[in-house]
Amino acid sequence: MHLNPRAVRGVWDDGRSLDLHVSSSEFLGYNEYGHPQFETTRTELGELLYRLKYKNDQSVVASIAQATCDFVREWNPGVDIIVPAPPSKARRVQPLFQIADELGRLLGLPVDKASVRKTKTTPELKNVDYAQRIELLAGAHSIEPGTFSGQRVLLLDDLYQSGATLNAIARILKEGGGATAVLALALTRARS
Fold first, then answer.
1. Which residues pair with 168 in a beta bridge?
2. What is the pLDDT at residue 101?
3. 3-class DSSP state for residue 96?
4. Please, how many CA atoms are within 13 Å of residue 107, restricted to the half-sphere of its CB?
5. Cα–chain-centroid distance for residue 167?
6. For residue 181, what are the β-bridge partners?
7. For 74, which DSSP code?
8. Is residue 34 a part of any domain in this protein?
9. Parallel, antiparallel, or unpaired for β 22-30 and 36-42?
10. What is the C-alpha separation between 174 and 189, in angstroms, rounded?
């Protein structure tokens, strides 16, 4: 799989995203209900994530995890544990957790999906501006003190849009969780 990794900035020690989510999106006009219509082209990784999250295509988990594993091995951030970002939308099966579990298996690393907990319900943040995201995320996560004491944590998320969620979680991993380092990895990133 072809990837186009980039550095992402935040309160973490180092951070990367593997590729864009959408490579192009062309406005086509409005449908009969007045809703805007677009022709969207996703990157290969973006398409696989879309299929997993919105079409429940379980067959793509292995490909996403393998591409991520290959990148992490090359990046070599020296992590001890993988912590996927808690989801904003309740689902019976959490796609990011599935990817994290498979990535952990491939890298031989433990995956902790329970220590970072949501303390309040937040809406999906993909259509919310940055200032509002910060406000919504204030106090939205908690962790038991010292949970990751002395560990280097790979913080995993599926989409980097503004970094607000990853920043909020990275802070509590370091400040409350005691992580010695937080390395952020977003599978895809928004164009803007």
1. none
2. 98
3. helix
4. 28
5. 11
6. 152
7. H
8. no
9. antiparallel
10. 23
Is 39 inside a domain boundary? no
CB-based contact 167:10 (threshold 8 Å): yes
pLDDT tens-digit series, residues 13-36: 999 999 999 999 999 999 999 999
How many beta carbons lie within 10 A of that of residue 41, not counting itself?
12
- Residue ranges making up the domain that contains 70: 6-19+65-189
CATH number of the structural domain spanning residue 117: 3.40.50.2020
* Residue 92 contacts residue 58 (beta carbons within 8 Å): no
Place of tokens 């809703």: 35
63 CB-near residues (< 8 Å, 6+ apart):
1, 48
Q: What is the pTM of this model?
A: 0.89
> Could you tell me if 38 and 26 are in contact, meaning their C-beta atoms sit under 8 angstroms apart?
yes
pLDDT digits (tens, 9 = 90+) for 61-107: 999 999 999 999 999 999 999 999 988 766 677 999 999 999 999 99
Domains in the chain, number? 1
From CA 184, how far away is CA 14, in angstroms rounded? Answer: 6
Report if residue 59 sits inside a domain: no
Distance CA 11, CA 169 (A): 10
Q: Is residue 82 part of a domain?
A: yes
**Within 13 Å and on the Cβ side, how many CA atoms surround 95?**
21
Q: What is the CA radius of gyration of the chain?
A: 17
